[in-house]
Amino acid sequence: MSNAFVFPSIHDFPPFYTFQPTQTTWQNQVALWSEIILSYYRHHKLYRLELSESLNSELFHNKGINRRLKLDTLQMIIDEMVKQGMAEWDSPPKKTTAIIYWRKPEEWATLINNWVFEAGITNSILTVYEIAHGDTTEGLEFHKLDQIILMKSLDILVKKGVAQTFQGTSADDIGVKFFGIN
Amino acid sequence: MDRFSRVELTSTLRPVLNEGETILAIQDNVGLYDGNEKAAGYMNGKVYLTSHRIIYVDSEQPNTNSIGVEIRFIKGREFYTGFVKSSPKITLKFSESNNNNSSPFYHQLNDSSTSTLSSASSTWICPICSYSNTPQIFKCQLCGVKKTENLASITPPPASSLSNTSASSQQQITTNQTSPIKKTQGDTGIECPQCTFLNHPDMVICEICDAELGTNIKINEEEILGSRVGGKSKDDFIRLAFRNGGAGTFYDKMKQAITMKEWEKTIEPSKSPIDFDPVRGGISGIMRNAEENKKEQDEYLNQAFKDLESLKTITEKMESAESEEVSTFKTNLFKLGISNPVTKDEAGSIYHKELARELAEFLENTLDKDNGMMSLTDIYCIFNRARGVALISPNDLYKACSLFERLNLPLRLRKYESGLLVVHDDQIAQRILEYIKLRGSLSGIELASIEQKSVVLVNEQLQMVEAKGLICRDESIEGIRYYDNLINHFVWER
């Protein structure tokens, strides 16, 4: 937690923590919540949302007005975000953990590919661990990127024919070779 | 169309009727024709037939395009049953004399009204083929060209007006001479835009090259349409096109209305209600009255029990005192009365819509006393009481009430969970919003104490306003509180 995230004023509005039965109001409420979640996750570089755990975090529990979002309401919000491609359930149909895409896998894929170009490491084999946790990626946006998101974006690159993966002994040992095609 | 005048409308868009005027029939989806042409802006509306007038209320722009004509101007009528795609029409013809008064154009041309009137009986000569036609025929028998309006001046004036030697008739002749000259100047023909051939002014298409000559005519038409109400018109008749049927009954009713001549009956001045005395008025006045009555009755009772004999005479007085009360009650109810109840016969297919409008007018005054809402059963009672005649069925009332929203009337019918049907005004939402703005938030119990209503009822109203998206709820251990709907308007600027 480097610097504190500034919540919008609606975060202090008590009805914001209650499921609104009116359709239009609910849609607006969901839109605002997903916007706040995305910005909060981007701000803190978070990727995973454990629902029951995060209900105690400052994001969903406003101690100032003593309001807390309910689990089922949060699930509905995440459901809505999944529909719009801003999130994904980690292991559906269980709705306990979600991955928040404050940047979509496609966007991550282009970022990684660009980095490969700039670093001049085309046609050499890298491990997945190196990309996410290696010294060379220190300070880059996808440093400490979530394993699942990273794999997804690598898959996209493979499908495009830009890269190739090699099976390793463990998840971190998977090798990637970039062909240097943009 | 020049005999039409604007018609005032009530808040529910029904025409305001004059005293002694009654509605005989109503038909919707009716269009007006000025002569043979469709009247722009008057193509779809409701037509009311009253004992005095025929009123057209436009459905799109009721406030500007609502006009009426008095039946007494109607001198002739025709009924056309309709064929394939053309809808049944009623033609209304108007008297000639009135036309001259209202149109300056006619004044100028026919200053010598005697000559035109007499010439009307003579034959007219077709400007195209020079065939002399009988005056009853409006199209040339030989070539089918329409008779022009100013043709009257072409026919030679009869000897009677020429032989007149007075100075005024001299002037007549000069005007008679100048007008045809003007006409020929204006009628030199329309130049074809394609081949520059000078066509006869009556032509629509160039005789040489078949190009359209529309421009001049279009301008003319626009002028006529612009001066629709109160302005002159070419033809002396209008048509009502009944696109939704109902023309037959309307025509029958109109015939009745014309024969009844309701407008010739003198209107008896209605008795004005007893003058209001400001000193004796108000609650104190009522209390004083009641006290006096009580004293009187006490006296009667005292006297009555003193002597049985006198009791007999005094009972009459007591009875009269009682009946006085009843009569005031009746007059109070009568004040609520509806002078012109809508009935199924007159309104036909739009019966329920009209009923809803009437009901809305009626409830405007009545609902205020009851906190802006009333159960449907109560409304059924007082509404039928007010109508007096032509009582309506509960089903009709229900149907009429469910039309409030669609007709944009300031009332709503609501069915509560318990099955209770209530009509309430549209103001409750505004009031709730105002309370919330004052206090920040509002619970059902708080609103109930402000509005002096039951909590159940108030909760229903809150939910209704919430469903409109005007307020939003906050559920906590303290219960449900309602807030102004910030969620709907919030924009997060980062």
Automatic annotation (TrEMBL), chain A:
- UniProt superkingdom: Eukaryota
Where is the major localization of this protein? cytoplasm
The record's keywords, sorted A to Z, are:
Cytoplasm, Protein transport, Transport
Per the record, its GO cellular-component terms are:
ESCRT II complex
Q: Per its record, what are the GO molecular function terms?
A: protein homodimerization activity; structural molecule activity
The record, for InterPro entries, names: ESCRT-II_cplx_Vps25-sub, ESCRT-II_cplx_Vps25-sub_N, WH-like_DNA-bd_sf, WH_DNA-bd_sf
Per UniProt, subcellular location reads as: Cytoplasm
> What's a BP term from Gene Ontology annotated to this protein?
protein transport to vacuole involved in ubiquitin-dependent protein catabolic process via the multivesicular body sorting pathway
**Hey, which family's this protein in?**
Belongs to the VPS25 family.
Q: Which PANTHER family match?
A: VACUOLAR PROTEIN SORTING-ASSOCIATED PROTEIN VPS25 (PTHR13149), VACUOLAR PROTEIN-SORTING-ASSOCIATED PROTEIN 25 (PTHR13149:SF0)
Name by which UniProt lists this protein: Vacuolar protein-sorting-associated protein 25
Q: Which organism is it from?
A: Funneliformis geosporum
Automatic annotation (TrEMBL), chain B:
Q: Where is the region Disordered?
A: 154-185
Q: Would the keyword Metal-binding be found if you checked this record's keyword annotation?
A: yes
Q: Where in the cell is it found?
A: Cytoplasm; Endosome
Sorted alphabetically, the keyword list is: Coiled coil, Cytoplasm, Endosome, Metal-binding, Protein transport, Transport, Zinc, Zinc-finger
Q: Which InterPro entries match?
A: GLUE_dom, PH-like_dom_sf, Snf8/Vps36, Vps36, WH-like_DNA-bd_sf, WH_DNA-bd_sf, Znf_RanBP2, Znf_RanBP2_sf
Q: Where do the RanBP2-type domain residues begin and end? A: 120-149
Indicate, by first and last residue, each region the UniProt record lists as having compositional bias (Low complexity). Answer: 160-179
PROSITE patterns recorded for this chain?
A: GLUE (PS51495), ZF_RANBP2_1 (PS01358), ZF_RANBP2_2 (PS50199)
Q: What is the predominant subcellular site recorded for this chain?
A: cytoplasm
Annotated GO CC locations: ESCRT II complex; late endosome membrane
Which positions fall inside the GLUE N-terminal domain?
Answer: 7-270
**What biological function has been recorded for the protein in this entry?**
Component of the ESCRT-II complex (endosomal sorting complex required for transport II), which is required for multivesicular body (MVB) formation and sorting of endosomal cargo proteins into MVBs.
Q: What is this protein called?
A: Vacuolar protein-sorting-associated protein 36
Organism of origin is Funneliformis geosporum
